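Lecture 7 notes: from sequence to structure.
We start with the chain below.
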Amino acid sequence: MHGGGRRFDPGILHSLVGSSWAGETNVIFTRILAATDGTEVALRGVEVAARIAARDNAEFLLLTAVSLPQHLVLSANMGQRSVHGVAERMAQESLSPALAVLERWGVGAEVKVVIGPPAESILAEIETSGADLVIMGRRSRMEPKDLILGDVSYRVARRVAVPILLVP
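Predicted structure tokens for the same chain:
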């Protein structure tokens, strides 16, 4: 575990360490959070998370954050019911492939959908969920908007207080 009261360095993996019978050291996680947006990159992260959860018999939280731009909601004159309907459809599109991965690995999961800016929503859920490992896919190339804002996985990795594994 990290000591000295310093901020967690996302480049270093800190967690409980257990010993196996052959003298090998294995890192053991008890609650894994995997965030997905349904993309191929995110699914690679879910795949790695499922393998680790199966190995460690860990609890699994599958999370997707749905971002509905306020100007879209206002200009479309959407009511609360319509907003939730659109968010639900977007979430199903993001979660469907990830759930198939979990089923293939025989891993059960708590599934959660949050509405809001993805990085901030993921960070808030990490804090409240008690996750001791976060796994996310990481794009290999940056888009122009990422140069200003940073992509979601980068923003989460810079601010997260638990270990994070970014899967390329």
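Points to note: The domain at 29-167 is CATH 3.40.50.620 (Rossmann fold). The chain is about 45% helix and 20% strand.
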